[in-house]
Specification:
homotetramer, 361 residues, alpha+beta, Chorismate synthase, AroC fold, 5-stranded antiparallel beta sheet, 18 strands
């Protein structure tokens, strides 16, 4: 088996943990020394991921209290691995026997069983959305690092089901992270309708990374957009990725899709448009990096579904309990976190690109 | 700088070479020993990638003659690295001084210059489409390996600009690799129209991987779909990736998007539908793996474009010479090759998943 | 910075933690599913590493109580990452201000400060011998896995200072892990003499790995002996590694150093001698793998030493407190643990070597 | 199978090729752009490795003419992979049928057969000493890079069999690379005596890396000395590694082994002695890095040896042809090359260690 729980080459994150085990967490290896860091830097990100904050995210007794176990001394990173854990509370309180032997449609129950011959069925185990708490903590560390270089990421809900934003009004923050009041209201109704029947919705998350200088990304296989795609598809429920005009570029013609280079006001070079989404040939081109992720509807629905059990017997299943009717709003900060991880690794990995600026520090 | 020219963990491919350097090639490290292999196994793939085969792909004097330098003995792989090279012919024959200092819109000229402070400007250098010849050769080796396990991949043109196939008729092979005669004829006219004005078209490539057993892929970061997304976005000109219903899943509801599990005729478990595209929780679910890639229009167009030169002066550029008015048909086999590389690595990486089937050979 | 806290490719261990931070631990990624595992499997290894067990290892209030946070469900590994942590107790109880600004000779204080510009000076921080507790836990998991394949490792003290064992009597277990009663008694006196003057001793640890089948190891760079050397030199205080006859082979002639192949009683092939130490061309040859590590004397001594402080001022230092007069006995189990990690990774990494035995499980 | 033909993380080298295949070579991925490089930079290293240059290295028709295939443009590296190949000449000229089915003692024939079930038996195939030509070429590139940072490596023969140098007189260059005229003359006679009876000798190579600043190396697993040990044991025939006092440190006491820190003439910090060999806690300490490798006697000897064939039949073997009676002198430059590879990777990997000096170039 190839170990698949690490991401990044020079700013490397390893995660661990199941939704109902003792704890989840991450180890960040390669964070430069001398960065001021505390739990307070993590909380704004973790709070955005937390369930139970709105009518669209169900309170489930999760507790996202991070503990930094290593790598920080007197408020600063030391260059050694930063381990952060989150204890699971009440992990023994629920009865999961009804799903122990049955494969929930749309979930990873069957595939984990096929791969490993065993699975921690409690709450989805390793494939639970709870796994993302570790990613968000790591992303918060990357965000803190990048803030010193003027790099920031901003993700938001682009659409819920068929309802898309038509503009972006930053003041319109809401519990769907959908920055268009009109679209938000329609989306809220749409979700409410689906929830009332036990059904669920999907959507699209858009993310912009601001301030990335031209020159990051490692062709040919570790192109910046290839790593972003890898990062995003590694998030459970994400089924598609596009950068810049994305699938729209397939409909365009060359003269419309190419971005002209023009002088900026300081004598530098910028692009007149940004169809490329800030990446050309796999390397950042200095424009905003903009990409979108398709998120499928929540697989856990309170409707009768046909399935099978471990022994090959057909079963009908009705998933009990309360579930998010849409996971898009909670995934917004996860997308942002993964974007930060990609950018931080690209920044550090690019340090030795040119002989002229290579320095032994 | 993080070396970015390798792909895969246990079936690992490293590529090298510029479009107008001495040669391009790949090193395949980790191919199991005992696979019968010769140049004949590579040619069917390489021929599909070769330019100048139709009115849509311009003959440019490329020569895709592979030479296997190592790793094969008496017609069999030996387990040692397989190096394959392709000599570039006539690499000094052309005058590239017109693009030496000017950044072509839509190309990687500016970003390579920004990253490295130097670039081999001849024909795009490392960022040329010619780089894919090495990927295709490596993919052909992976295909040969996988054929023994009943795994095969098939890519084809799903759409060109606004023209999509409405069905799939396998007998309808044509120079656009578009398996629908009616759509093909429309697409051919569409491309011809654009070419006549010096413009270019994009499109969508769909790929199906058949025969992948349930259980491949390494959560949480090396999910099978995450690796496919990484692989596809690493292909120049690919701007989007989606698996299964992809962006369509964002529009669906849970009850429609979930695939029911049902018994197959042999008492096993299959899915009644395949909205997931053959991957659940990042692990293959036994269904066909189906995904799509968005390909942007050819950046090299014979129309006047605004740009800048290295010294920060605005320039107008008209790219000389003949160029493919669409690169989709040539990219079809590249998508297929990358799919084979992902599948081969996943197959080998999955060997130690379960204690019960782990064997020392 | 390249993240350096992970070891192994398919059975991969990542460690974290400082001697006086909140906790130390490891994440094991790639352990096959279905292995029965509990804290009880770790304890025999951890107990051997624990300080304060003899007159040669100082009690320092360390507490090696492992907690398994993830990857084990109902007593079995699930194939997901296994995280294990060890809480540090009383980490705030001591005053380290005397070494906060002074570089202890023989320690990593100066080099960590040079590399990172900051260091957790409490008890050596990340460079403390306490770091090995995480390695030993991981090694215990590897040992459990390998026990099912008939592979086991055994390390012991070969010499302390100038006193070497002259034979091996397994019944002679003692607190120096020196399997020769006569040598043990001399070594104990030798150490006692050094301790009484505040000085310290070094020694050599020998390790044998039994039961490794011929065929493991990945030439050319990941040869089995190269990985063992990497593993052993990654242990603090290890200054040398040799396999088989090692440095003695440099003195031998070809006819004496070559091992003849002869038939074994079952019609197989074995070697008449084992000068190679069980590895030929970087691949296991079926014989016992035998290697030795040189361990330097404890750097912490209670004698006056000349050094410098952070500000470039000469200082004299006398390291306070009780310290192990020799670290060899405690390093024995660390050597064994690292040997298990190398063997487990080689076993899993070798699964796809041959087409004929490759199976999708 | 885990691909084992790559070395390094950010300055990464992949090698390929068999002694009697079409060609051998390397791909260097991660070399910074803007380094002036040509074949002329490689030749001084390659010439030192070349056989047939003295009475101790047999002429075998090898031809070490490198061809740079990629990554260099107008005399400068471009940041893209640098591929270098060496054609094998006359690879079909010899009859190897006598060793096709027989396992030569001391060679990797049996282990390659065990691992892969097939081997290229011609001249040792991948396990031939000829494989090192690719390492030396890559090391020469690393040396060129490091020369701009004042870092250089120097390896030489420390001993041949029982004859050691007692001093170092740089003017005493000779065909054994043994820098002590008196020892050289004794060693030459010693080798001649062994050769006359068809036997062979081993020896020890010492290497010093000058100019490495304090602060390179990545604890805890990628310590600088751990990577050096890995690199050296990956060279065929190397059976031991020690740094600084090495195995001698095991005999010393703490007060003798610790290096005092003292002020240098510029107000900086240096060490009064260098028992550590320039590495403390796995990180360079600013002193010369000094290490030694034990090289076993040439396995190919013209004496009758007992062995087995593939079918399990006992055989006697007398290896035909001319062979180096000692490989130490040819391995000197290989040790140096691997030292350069480790240092180059450590230099680039250390760029992001500290926030204060981290720059985006």
């Amino acid at each position: 088996m190839a170990a698949g729980s690490s991401f990044g080459k020079n700013f490397k994150v390893t995660t661990f943990g199941e939704s109902h085990g003792a704890a989840l967490g991450c180890v960040i290896d390669g964070c430069p020394a001398g960065l001021s860091l505390s739990v307070d830097d993590l909380m704004p990100f973790l709070i955005r991921r937390k369930p139970g904050q709105s009518e669209f995210t169900t309170a489930r007794g999760e507790d996202d209290e991070p503990e930094i176990l290593s790598g920080v001394f007197e408020g600063q990173t030391t260059g050694t691995p930063i381990a952060i854990i989150f204890r699971n509370k009440d992990q023994h309180s629920k009865d999961y026997s009804d799903i122990a032997d049955v494969f929930r449609p749309g979930h990873a129950d069957y595939t984990f069983q096929s791969k490993f011959g065993i699975r921690d069925y409690r709450g989805g185990g390793r494939s639970s959305g709870r796994e993302t708490v570790a990613r968000v903590a790591a992303g918060a560390v990357a965000a803190k690092l990048l803030s010193g270089y003027g790099i920031s990421a901003k993700a938001y809900t682009k659409s819920i089901g068929p309802i898309s934003i038509s503009g972006y009004d930053e003041s319109e923050k809401n519990d769907l992270y959908m920055p268009d009041r009109n679209a938000y209201e329609k989306a809220a109704k749409y979700i409410e309708g689906l929830r009332s029947e036990g059904n669920s919705a999907g959507g699209v998350i858009e993310c912009v990374i601001f301030g990335v200088p031209a020159g990051l990304g490692d062709p040919v296989f570790d192109k910046l957009d290839a790593l972003l795609a890898h990062a995003m598809l590694s998030i459970g429920a994400v089924k598609g990725f596009e950068i810049g005009d994305g699938f729209g570029a397939a409909l365009a013609t060359g003269i419309d899709n190419n971005d002209a280079f023009i002088p900026d006001k300081d004598g530098g070079i910028i692009k007149a448009t940004n169809h490329s989404g800030g990446v050309l040939g796999g390397i950042s081109d200095g424009a905003d990096i903009i990409f979108r992720c398709a998120v499928k509807p929540t697989a856990s629905i309170s409707m009768l579904q046909q399935t099978m059990d471990k022994n090959g017997n057909p079963k009908e299943i009705m998933i009990r309990g309360r579930h998010d009717p849409v996971i898009v709003p909670r995934a917004v900060v996860v997308v942002e976190a993964m974007a930060y991880l990609v950018a931080a690794d690209a920044l550090i990995s690019g340090l030795g690109d040119k002989l002229e600026t290579l320095t032994t520090g």
